Amino acid sequence: MKNEQVIPQVNIQEYFREVVASALANQKKEADEETVFYVVNLLAYFIRTERLFIDTEEGVMLQPLAQIYAEAVNAASTEEQSRSLQRLGDVALLIAGVFSDSLNRKLVDVDYYIAMGGSAYGHLADLIKDSFRGRALGGIFSELSHKFGDFVEVLGEVSERAHLTSSSDVMRLYEVWLRTGSKRAEARLRRLGIDPIPGLIHQH
Questions:
Q1: How buried is 133 (Cβ within 10 angstroms: 0-12 exposed, 13-18 middle, 19+ buried)?
Q2: Is there a smaller number of Cβ atoms within 10 Å at the N or the C end of the chain?
Q3: Which runs of consecutive H residues, i.e. helices, occur in 27-76?
């Protein structure tokens, strides 16, 4: 028989919505509400850090931007190409904005990620402009392309406020809490300003 255990869940989207809005205001930058919503959802989606990495023969690693770009160029369909371009833009934005400290150990710098990410979003906006998806999301990708550097700075402030690159890493804490219900992880998340929302997770 299955046992149900109540484990608190973090309202992580609300948390990121607040810190992104605060960073935009603090830096006196403006963005369409839909674009801000996209960026907030992007942060919430990659709260599962394994979504940012790929499995290779050498282990789990971050997929090089050049490889994602090659997948877009060699895509067999427009749908595949648009997915690759979107991932290229998303990954470049997250690395340049949230995890820029990791670039200190690489041969490429943040300018490379800004150029690649901005270009990817721009190509994506053009690629889908005549489609239903383009009518819904084209404006978002176009704004991300033109303001890529601004959003990198905004996410940099989000990273600093949330201590995303330190031992207080919200993403790792969230995963620990979600999987184990750790009281210690809960307390540390609360100190970062994240309020829990009761939810049910089925434990077998």
A1: middle
A2: N
A3: 33-45, 65-73
Question: Which residues neighbour 128 within 8 Å (Cβ) at sequence distance 6 or greater?
Answer: 78, 82, 134, 137, 138, 141
Give the global pTM.
0.74
- What are the domain boundaries of the chain? 9-48+65-162, 163-194
